[in-house]
Amino acid sequence: MPLPSNDHLHERLAAWFPLLPRPRPACRALTERVDEINHLAHIAAHGPPEQRITTAAEACNKAALILSDCGLPDRAHQLCRRQFDLFHAHRPLAPTTAKLALQPLVNLGRLHIRTGQANRAHQLFTHAYQALRTRTATTIDGRNIDLTDLTDDHSAARGDLARFLWTVLLADGTRALTRAGRWNDALEHLERHKGIGDRMLDGRQVAILTRIINDDHEHALDLLAHSSTPETWEQAVASYLTTLCLTTAERETQPADTEMVERYLALPHQSTPPVFRCRLGLCVLDLTNHTPHTPITTDITRQAIAAADAYAAHDVLTHPACAQNMSDTDQHALTHIITTAGLHHGEEAPAEPLTELTDAIAASETSLAHALTRPQSAHDQPRRNYPSTTAPQPPGELGDDLAGPGDTTEAAPRGIPRY
Q1: pTM for the whole thing?
Q2: Could you please report the per-residue DSSP string of 203-266?
Q3: What is the residue extent of each domain of the chain?
């Protein structure tokens, strides 16, 4: 199989890298996901009063993700703006509630990345962080936003919020720059914020890939040689990046190619997130020239079908080399997963579940507005065992995506995942 062009490789790298096995909500059947929003809306209206803000916000965040997945980005953007406005109208907020209020702004940035407006996303993340840190008004998405009195004038609370947006700027801001193909800017951004460690996490991957893209292959190989890769997934990613570097440098790739395939196939099936596994497998398939493709394509396809996740199904079905070696039965199975999820269907998405979703969103917004009129305290939203967004991270590490810094709040709502 001929190797893909450099343009194709750069497009793939910008879309999927940094690539890490982070937990993310699966894109399952649309009816199943809408049922979850209905359930959350019911709890937000009738559940314990101290959980209603958290649950209503969770419903809105997940509903925005569904709208985006269905190819309705304008409706997703509008929902995020309305949600932020509801919180903002009731400021000053308790510290935990204030963090919930910031999540719709973060989601707006991630929606911009999804719709190909990565530079706009980076600007949003930057403006939001600077406005909160300097206690000034700013312009976000063409709207004047004042965060000066979002929470009570308590230095610890404001510091907590600033750290949250700092992790967003570091992780999501980097993702926005790489998605825009601005690898040098992404590397400078990470170096300025001391975001490059020894592990094969976001910062190190960007540092290596920037050197590869700039044809600085010796430096890239040196970074790879001195990387710490204690986890099997890190070893698999490092093997891929090594083969990529040798390939673009037009050097002999045979030993590295074989190791890359072996490392990929050795990934544990149960504990490796399917989207990560499928995307890494497709990247491996792009490069391998010395190993039979059948074991790789079979593994990728089986993983995508077993996961019943439309994100993975779409990636696999639209990859030419994988699709051409796929049976008709497997193609139909993957197509069915995508169709039932309504992924990218736009206005052709099934009307009935979208109508149910609209009603659930309206109910959640009403519950959120009512709950925000209650006197707030720092203890109104109990911790629900989600990892803290402000827990100290090892130097140079960005932390976990959906399950840690730069993504979720300390309370329940999950934000729009990095795509």
Answers
A1: 0.87
A2: HHHHHHHHHHHTT-HHHHHHHHHT-B--SHHHHHHHHHHHHHHHHHTT---HHHHHHHHHHHHT
A3: 26-181+347-374, 272-341
